[in-house]
Amino acid sequence: GIAMCCTFGDLTDVQWWRELQLPTRSVLGKDGRILRDTPDWITDPAGRTMYEQMAGKTAFSARKALVEALQESGEMHGQATPTQRMTNFFEKGDKPLEIVTSRQWYIRNGGRPYEEANGKDLRDNLIAAGNELSFHPDFMHVRYDNWVNGLNTDWLVSRQRFFGVPIPVWYRVSDTGEVRYDSVIAPEFEQLPIDPSSDVPSGFTEDQRDQPGGFSGEIDIMDTWATSSLSPQIVSGWLNDDDLFQRVYPMDLRPQGQDIIRTWLFSSMVRAHLEFGQIPWKRAAISGWILDPDHKKMSKSKGNVVTPMHLLEKHGSDAVRYWATSARLGVDAAFDEQQMKIGRRLAMKVLNASKFALSMAGEGAAVDLDPASVTEPVDHALLTGLADVVDGATKAFDAYDHTRALELTETYFWTFCDDYLELVKDRAYSADPAAKSAQVTLNIAVDTFLRLLAPFIPFATEDVWSWYRTGSVHLAAWPQAAPLRAAGAGADPELIRVAGEALTVLRKAKSENKVSQRTSYAWVNLAVATADRGLFDLVHADLVKAAHVRGDLSVSDESDGAVSIASYELDPPEPKKPRNK
């Protein structure tokens, strides 16, 4: 023949059966075996005899029986040859899918009835709704559009399981005891929610359940997505708290994985459109997958999922969260314990550096955050640079790029610890009139870094916050750049770079000579780029204290390049004190 169609072998058969309105001739039952009762539409005696030989068998055994019968009858030309065809398999098994007929509930995704009622195809409306939604990252938008444009069936929302939200309807039972599925008994709105397996429809009594002339409850439950698709409405107080609902719906953000754009995101869009004619939230933040060491997606079905408890116990909650927040939206992230170690190191540094910085004014002294006390150029420069970080991190968060916000903050925090703090600690501890400027700058910096880092390492930042403030850092206002910039008095943040380069080479020389960093320089001459000479002069006094330069700290101009040591002389190291025995 030109073409073969059976009901049902594959999805093509289903499509032809629907479009050509062919009769339904299903022979497979829900147990995956040929129906035991011979269908009435088989009228040929030989055909009925053949069917009886296949009844109750699996599809595989039935094919074998049919081939043997054809061979015995002589109707087969040649020998039977095994063939292989493409077929769908269910996810966790090695058997092909077989299509059976059943009653199911659907939410219409489009088509003529919807178009006649609404004047526009639902698919077009969902595409338009998707265009109103801001996707982060933007390239995830095309996945939603591709799914909507590729829809060729309605949304199946019923499931045959024991646990779930019941479909709230009953059916009339005829006088002969047959359930009339075309005679639906729907509850009144005021009756909802109901469970048709235990609740009784109006006008009936419990003893009429499943009896002739009575009623029968629907036993199917709703698909997971049919109920979770209403999560934006439910948490907004829909039907329960109208004041809350009016204030928060539509919501602002839906965070979710890329693999459920076609399920959770799409189903939520459908329900919101059908009920309210609007999108359920303004933005969708789409995360990537977590990959195992072989760069394969972690999933329960593959058995390669790493549970987090031992990671939390080993590295700490902040370290694991740091690793997670290092992953960009829409980009797959490799499972990496090394990244967790980096996060733990950052959390420990926040604790230790903050304790050190906040104690500069002395034991029991109040933490002074008054920017009017900041008077020194390098202190001004630190706050100006910190204002730039706040601006950058704020802009990154506004663009839903949390990873960029972390990069900017973390980089400047290490500059603060390795360069600035080491540079000014001697001044901050001293009786110098400029000590107050360093102390207040350190306090303001710590206070700002805690707010910037709180989304990434929440426990360490909360702990430090409790040392000198009441309440929670997670309820504190996000830092503002303007006050920091005003406190910076227009200083050039490049001053911190020049100071850091100078301090690094001065400390490196001592390390190479295997002497303590407390060892003093008799004198030292640094080579500084001509363009940086003015900046170097502003930090000269702090460098003398930080590097313990007893004599002259002079400068030789260089046309370009980083700061380097031209020449120096170290004082002899102090003799070690004998240990008491």
What does this protein look like?
The protein is α/β, with parallel strands linked by helices and 581 residues long. Among the domains are: 1-102, no CATH class; 333-491, Isoleucyl-tRNA Synthetase, Domain 1, CATH 1.10.730; 495-570, hypothetical protein PF0899 fold, CATH 3.30.2320. It is 44% helix and 11% strand. The strands form six sheets. The protein has a three-stranded parallel β-sheet. Helix 5 packs antiparallel against helix 6, helix 12 crosses helix 13 and helix 13 (337-358) runs parallel beside helix 15 (402-429). The mean pLDDT is 90.
SSE inventory with pairings:
Elements (H helix, E strand, L loop, with lengths): L10 H9 L25 H10 L4 H15 L32 E2 L4 H7 L3 H11 L1 E3 L4 H9 L5 E2 L1 E2 L10 E4 L5 E7 L29 E3 L3 E2 L1 H5 L2 H5 L6 H7 L2 E7 L3 H16 L4 E7 L2 E2 L17 H7 L1 H9 L7 E2 L2 H22 L18 H22 L3 H28 L5 H19 L4 H11 L12 H8 L5 H19 L8 E9 L3 H15 L5 E6 L5 E7 L11
Parallel strand pairs: 2-10, 9-10, 11-12, 13-14
Antiparallel strand pairs: 1-3, 4-8, 5-6, 5-7, 13-15
Helix pairs in contact: 5-6, 6-10, 11-12, 12-13, 13-15, 13-16, 13-17, 14-15, 14-16, 14-18, 14-19, 15-16, 15-19, 15-20, 16-17, 19-20
